[in-house]
Amino acid sequence: MSPLRSIAPLCVLAVVAFAVPAQEKRVHHRSDLSDHAHKDGEGYQYDHEAFLGKEESKTFDQLTPEESKAKLAKIVERIDTDKDGYVNHAELHYWIKHRQRRYIEENVNKHWNDYDMNHDGKIGWEEYKNTTYGYYLDEAFDDVEDKATYRTMLTRDERRFKTADRDGDGIATREEFTAFLHPEEFDYMKGVVVQETVEDIDKDGDGKINLDEYIGDMYTSENGEKEPDWVQTERTHFSEFRDTNKDGFLDADEVARWVLPGEVDHADNEAKHLIHETDTDKDGHLLLSELLDKFEFIKTSTITDYGGMRLDSHEEL
């Protein structure tokens, strides 16, 4: 694997930018439930990933309908912790939070061995830099087409790493490396998330985001096409809600309120939404039969890791 390819999972904003419809791609929720926008009118992929989990969604979709339903039954059995035959809101909320935590843990574990080259249980900045950029550093990025981009990536990675490294010793513990990979999960990393967002969108380099930059990050018209309604809505959001001091720009504080929207419990909201969509008798509890009746909806939700839930016999909730 090319060292620079390993950068991709670490560039949170870049990944989100390609995975999410433009108008929602910048908002960071703790332990994102899905890389998809929550739009039931256009499909249930958000709920699919919220119920099943992001990383494993592909495997669920590859099963036959009979295999998928059998796996769903096992998942429901896991969620029903009090074994009363029903899934209630508290059980579903706990399950979704569990899937969020597991996604982050697996993502960190996946990269840990790549960067802990001396296997001492820590990752130094030099280890990370040399593993990710080593070959290109020797050549000063001479064989990279867009040298400026990779130099910027190196500078940005170093800044994020040093911010995650709370004791400033140049070495990341597992928790600090988790903060490096998932800065939106840590309060002390919020400044980095905001700074990187501004840098991505601020094309004229004045440290602020104007309306054209804000819209340009989301939408570029082609061949004189009519601007979609949602773009007009975003223009309104910029002027009426995001630009709180009405100076025509988004500063760092305003960007923070936009992309880090506080302590909203999205797992709780998703649990309520899933029950609303699948609880056909409206008793506030879910039966397996109700979930099977809404199978096409459920198989694309967080309950099943968005279709890819591996139900390992040794996995603990």
Q: What does the model show?
A:
With 317 residues, the chain is mainly α. It has 15 helices and four strands. The strands form two sheets. A two-stranded antiparallel ribbon has the order 1-2. It has a two-stranded antiparallel ribbon with strand order 3-4. α5 (89-115) packs across α13 and α7 crosses α8. The longest helix is centred in the N-terminal third of the chain and has 27 residues, at 89-115.
Summarize the structure.
The chain has 317 residues and is mostly helical. The chain is built from 15 helices and four strands.
Give me the strand/helix succession: HHHHHEHHEHHEHHEHHHH
Helix and strand content put the structural class at mainly alpha
The major sheet is characterized as: 2 strands, antiparallel
How would you state the average pLDDT, rounded?
78
Oligomer: single chain
Q: Enumerate how many helices there are, as a single number.
A: 15
State which percent range the strand residues make up: under 5%
Q: Over the alpha carbons, how many angstroms does the gyration radius reach?
A: 22 Å
In whole angstroms, the N-to-C terminal distance is 34 Å
Principal-axes shape call: globular
Q: Percent range for helical residues?
A: 40-55%
Low-confidence sequence ranges: 1-24, 38-44, 306-317
Strand order of the largest sheet: 1-2
Can you count the beta strands? 4
